[in-house]
Amino acid sequence: SSDVCSSDLYKFYLFWIHKFPNGPIGHLDDHRVNIRLLSFIGFIGIGLSIEKWRRLSILYLFLIYITAIHMLFFVLPRFRMPAVPVLIIFSGYTINYSIEKIRKKG
């Protein structure tokens, strides 16, 4: 049971955080998309937007689906790419939320 849990956590890490070596799609990790930063800010946005879950449920379900289905099999960077636009949306939400909080304080 603990081996399965640690294996799932490791696959989650590989899918969302790990920087893959250069390959057919791995070059995106190096030059165009900083997946670690995008994942971090995107997951903050998911947490901040949880109160709007009904409006955003399709995005949440898409991320859960992409993560779950690919954690069952091989974790490769090309499987993560369809989720990047959704992470960008949640990252934008985080940035917008932060700017609004700064404006309200000032």
Class from secondary-structure proportions:
mainly alpha
Topology pattern, helix = H, strand = E: HHHHHH
Gross morphology: elongated
The major β-sheet equals: none
Taking the alpha carbons of the first and last residues, their distance comes to: 51 Å
Using the CA coordinates, give the radius of gyration: 15 Å
Number of strands: 0
| Mean pLDDT across all amino acids | 82
Q: Ranges with pLDDT <50 over ≥5 residues? A: none
Comma- or semicolon-separated keywords:
106 residues, mainly alpha, elongated, 0% strand
Fold and architecture overview:
The protein is an all-alpha fold and 106 residues long. The protein contains six helices and no strands. Helix 3 (35-48) packs across helix 6. It is elongated, with a radius of gyration of 15 Å. It starts with a helix and ends with a helix. The relative contact order is 0.15. The mean pLDDT is 82.
At a glance:
With about 110 residues, the protein is mostly helical. Helices cover about 75% and strands about 0% of the residues.
SSE topology sketch:
Layout: H1 2-16, H2 27-31, H3 35-48, H4 53-71, H5 77-80, H6 84-105
Helix pairs in contact: 3-6
